[in-house]
Amino acid sequence: MIHLDFIHAAASPIADYTQKQLSNYFHLLLKEDKTERHIPVELIFGIPLPDLATPASYDLDDQYQIIATPYRLKISASNPRSILLGVYRLLTELGCRFPMPGIEHEYIPQIRLEEINVYVCESASFRHRGVCIEGADSLKNILDFIDWLPKTGCNSFFVQHFEPEVFLNNWYSHKYNPLLKAETLSQDKMEQMCRQIDQAMACRGLLHHRVGHGWTSKAMGIPYACAPAKMAPSKEQRLLLAQVNGVRDFWEEIPSNTNLCYSNPMAQCAFIKGVTEYAANHPEVDYLHVWLADEYNNVCECHSCRSTSLTDQYISLLNEIDSALVQSGISTHIVLLLYQELLWPPVRQKLVHPERFTLMFAPISRTFNRSYSCRGPIPNLMPYRRNQIVLPHTLEENIAFLEAWKAGYDTDSFVYDYPLGRAHYGDLGYHHIARIISSDIKELSSLKLNGYISCQELRAALPNAFPNYVMGRTLWNKNLSFEILEEEYYSALYGSDWSTVKEYLLKLSSLTSCDYFNGIGPRYNPEQAARYKEVEFLSGEFHLYIKQRLDTAEPFRKIFFSLLDYHTEYCILITKALEAQAAGRVSEVPELWNTFMNFIRMHEPEFQPYLDVYRVLEVGTKYTGFSLDIER
Question: Residue 623 in contact with residue 586, Cβ under 8 Å?
């Protein structure tokens, strides 16, 4: 029996967790090896690594050195989190595979102790490598995803809003799925779940991103919620709200989507106080996102606000927040947002202490049919017209805004992108969107960006989780070949059939469109309709092949072929609806879409970890042009 003897291992929750992970996985790897030996294990952090030219900023940047032999195991790293990352890299080098969230999906081979011979010394290509929660999620979905992040090389998780209640409630209320019985979570239960999520991040040392939208409603004294307000704003609240078309009111009845009158000293004070108090009370947050309202063309039109730009007002607020944090001795990083009106850089204001701030470029309206690597000449900025802006759609238009900001702010920054938030539903093979992610990440350095946070559903694994896998691995090492990852991933899931499955999924990707499902372009599109018709035929043909493989697949791979089996039926039904819409046969669309909705609702309990039913129906309704049959 193999015994791991830990020496020179610092005592901390992260170190304790790391030791348990290493011990558990080594037990599984070597359980057939009857050798009786004690292996000394050293886990050391905070020292320079001689093989790496550039020293890390130890608390933020990740690097490790792994030396593993049958007689010694040593992982030296820049911080405790990097040691955990090093453990998972060692396991990967030894043949383990972590293809998607959930330990039930992991492949752990049987090896002998004498086969261990690993030397790796690396630093991450980018500082920011992570995911932001979206969609409808059970507690298990969230915890499984957090567990998976460092296994792919990621180091960050963004708990959007003050608490992730919206995403938990979307699942437990079974929004948009009337076939499942809704569960109401008590406040105590919700609080318990939220703290489990925080603890899961903390024990892995993940960089903790928090909040984002919600500060405007907090300044009004209203808890953050995406739903319409139950009452009209009070007289006192109205004084704080943006004046639009001569009226100060909640924008479309939703406080969190409502901007403030940022020239009003009372509004300024309430906004600044909300952020500074939160930062003081939440030292566990590494990156506090300070954003404005989550809508556009609704900024204040009063005379005082019109005398300056929204972005100048925003920078002024951030400087006041920074000043208050300096006085309190709080070092929390602040993330400022380049999004909607804030894509236009400030005219007069500058950050006083830019080292506290990280720029977050959020090109939410971009196309995903092309990568940043395919960009052409960058145009001049669109002119800013208060409450009459049009969001940029092309890659070049979006990048023009980033370059304008970077010209005046040479500071830490990352892209906050959306390939697995909406666009992926349009790519039925998941192969195109995975290649876009790979290519985009490889372009980050040329865009002077130091990472990537994906705003996405956590349940994004139908037909597989290859796009997320590519994201994590390439963010760690931007030089990794897409083709190498492709073979590594598909062969782990599908064995000797991997190239057949890959070619099928590649064909699906070539025939479908991220942009069409994302609402970009006309709904009547005969050429795309013909391609959807071909997908229907192709999926039906491949369904027979998958059925045969299901009978012979070994237990580990059976789940992945079962997913493909379900996926072929999913493709047939969704493309029937998409083809009718794109072909202009409007009268057929409702029945075909209802058939698809009922199918995924009925199968959600069986395939819950892989497809976010709530979110695909929300996107299909809001962007693609379909109609929802229920209000819940």
Answer: no
Please say whether the beta carbons of 284 and 198 come within 8 A.
Answer: yes
Q: Tens digit of pLDDT for each residue in 155-207?
A: 999 999 999 999 999 999 999 999 999 999 999 999 999 999 999 999 999 99
Work out the mean pLDDT of the chain and round it to a whole number. Answer: 94
Q: Does residue 393 lie in a domain region? A: no
Contact 123, 54 (CB under 8 A): yes
Residues 210 and 94 in one domain: no
Are residues 96 and 29 in contact, defined by beta-carbon separation less than 8 angstroms?
Answer: yes
Tell me the C-alpha to C-alpha distance, in Å, between residue 366 and each of 32, 108, 221, 232, 387.
51, 39, 34, 35, 20
Contact 25, 57 (CB under 8 A): no
- Write out the residue range of the structural domain in which residue 326 sits: 206-339
Neighbours of 261 (CB within 10 A): 23
Using DSSP's 3-state secondary structure scheme, residue 523 falls into coil
**Secondary structure class of 554 (helix, strand, coil):** coil
Are the CB atoms for 362 and 402 separated by under 8 Å?
A: no
Half-sphere exposure of 535 (CA within 13 A, CB side): 32
d(CA 177, CA 571): 19
Q: Do 119 and 212 reside in the same domain of the chain?
A: no
Q: Do residues 230 and 322 share a domain?
A: yes
pLDDT tens for residues 511-564?
999 999 999 999 999 999 999 999 999 999 999 999 888 888 888 999 999 999
Q: How far is CA 9 from the centre of its chain?
A: 32
Q: How far apart are CA 17 and CA 321, in angstroms?
A: 35
Q: Are 261 and 243 in contact (CB under 8 A)?
A: yes
Give yes or no for a contact between 612 and 619, defined as CB atoms under 8 angstroms apart: no
Confidence at residue 630, expressed as pLDDT on a 0 to 100 scale:
75
